[in-house]
Amino acid sequence: MDYLVGIDLGSTNLKAIVYDATGRVAARASRPTQRFNPDPQRPQWAIWKPEQIWGGVAESLREAIGQLDDPSLIRGVAVTGMGMDGVPLDEQGHWLYPFISWHCPRTEPQHKWWLEHVGAERQFAIGGNQIWVFNTVLRILWMMENEPQILARAHKWVLIEDFVNFMLCGALATDYSMASTTLLFDQRRQVWSDELVAKSGIRRDLLCDPQPSGTILGQVHAGAAEATGLPAGTPVVLGGHDYLCGALPTGAFRPGVVSDVTGTWEMVVAAIPEPVLTPAVREMGILVDSHVAPGMWAVMGATVAADQLEWFRREYGQPERLRAEQEGGVDWDYLMQAAAQSPPGAHGCLFLPHMSGSHCPVVDHRSLGAFAGLRNITTKGDMLRAIIEGLDYQFLQVVRGLEHGLGVRPEAIVAIGGAIHNAFWMQNKADVVGKPIEVPEIEEAVVLGAALLAGIGVGVYRDVADAYAQVHRPGRVYEPDPALNARYREWFAVFETLYPALKASHAAIAPA
């Protein structure tokens, strides 16, 4: 039996999971990812400590590997996780400054500078990026301006996944998908962009050379073996960005397969055979990244999703929390019962899910959330159902944006993420979009995707298609109700009038 190890560096947890070649979990462990606020005078600043990231990974690996009868059967290990956060290392491999977390707003001046001197249009035409305040190059620019002596001592700026790879085997490299998050990557040529590096003013040799996911970087050295329990000599294979690794075991690297990753945010992902870097795609807020699947690119539209349900739960779910304490169960179950008792269309109540602005396919960060159609007979269940329906209308907008802007034809929709545990939400999404939605029977798709890349690198699988074939297990399929879908198409047309009708009003009252 072959074992493969996936490591996931998430914003909440650091996970280590051991899989067999069929994708079944053999062992697992995790540790919390601890975010720190280093400066009492600047409470919004946020960092990750390198020693905590590595320590949590090492402890998780040691615990998981300790559950195996024979660790020598581990064939390879690969890392996935959050993008963009990086750390400067000196020539001896010592970290010189902590990771600036993606939560940290300190790079807002650098964000403004990049927009003025590079511009959103040119950035997208080269790198396929929407420019976000936490992109990697902006952290480096902040260091250049605020900690120049530290940056002058740096040998390499290492992204967080690449840092763990370095701690495991001593290699300094990155993959195409992680390089895509930096604002410095040429998406067509899959190399660092001479133009963008020159405009940034940073040293080219500060950057690790990009390589394809699935490349063997080296072997676990003796020090890492002692810290983690991994056998010395275990191949370390280049993984990739988390949401793209999650596309491998779901089959969302194949044309026509759309991956729907729903949690706090909803990410709608599809694979394309070449990068499409047109103004129309940029204006929809879509990202174009190099895929972890060789020879493919990924398009992704992201919107805020479950965070808006959590708002409702927090502000209006006190009776359900009390009921759960008294009668047992989970407050969410009682809330969803109330939503399900409201009829489709929520008695005419509509919700515009822009509580954190609009991100895709309409980009308007000053847009606000809104309920429409409230009457004195509207119930809590109606409002909650309206939120879910509004989120699903938003999902349909993103899917249509991929269709019209990129020619993606969604023949199959595969769902992963926390929302798959909410059957009412999943069924409503299928009814709204009018297509079946499959929830495959896999555990931790993102971590499994990293493990599959390790298996491809060491030859357990021939390629991504072979890996998918060996681990795919169909799960529940939510079939749309045709009659209900016809009604939702009518209500969707009304939903689409909400944003333009409220745009000016929201711009006038939105915080500056």
Question: Could you say which structural class the secondary elements and strand pairing correspond to?
Answer: alpha+beta
Question: Percent of residues in beta strands?
Answer: 15-25%
Q: What is the radius of gyration?
A: 23 Å
Per the CATH scheme, the topology name of the largest domain is Nucleotidyltransferase, domain 5
Q: Level of helix content?
A: 40-55%
Overall average residue pLDDT: 95
The CATH class of the largest domain, by name, is Alpha Beta
What's the β-strand tally? 24
CATH homologous superfamily caption of the largest domain: ATPase, nucleotide binding domain
CATH architecture of the largest domain: 2-Layer Sandwich
Strand order of the largest sheet: 18-19-17-16-22-23-24
Shape summary: globular
Overview of the structural elements:
By secondary structure, the chain is α+β, with helices and mostly antiparallel strands. It folds into two domains: 3-245, ATPase, nucleotide binding domain (Nucleotidyltransferase, domain 5); 250-439 and 481-512, 2-Layer Sandwich (Nucleotidyltransferase, domain 5). Helices cover 41% and strands 21% of the residues. Strands 18-19-17-16-22-23-24 form a seven-stranded mixed sheet. Strand 18 (287-290) and strand 19 form a beta hairpin. Helix 13 (306-316) runs antiparallel to helix 16. The model has no long low-confidence stretch (mean pLDDT 95).
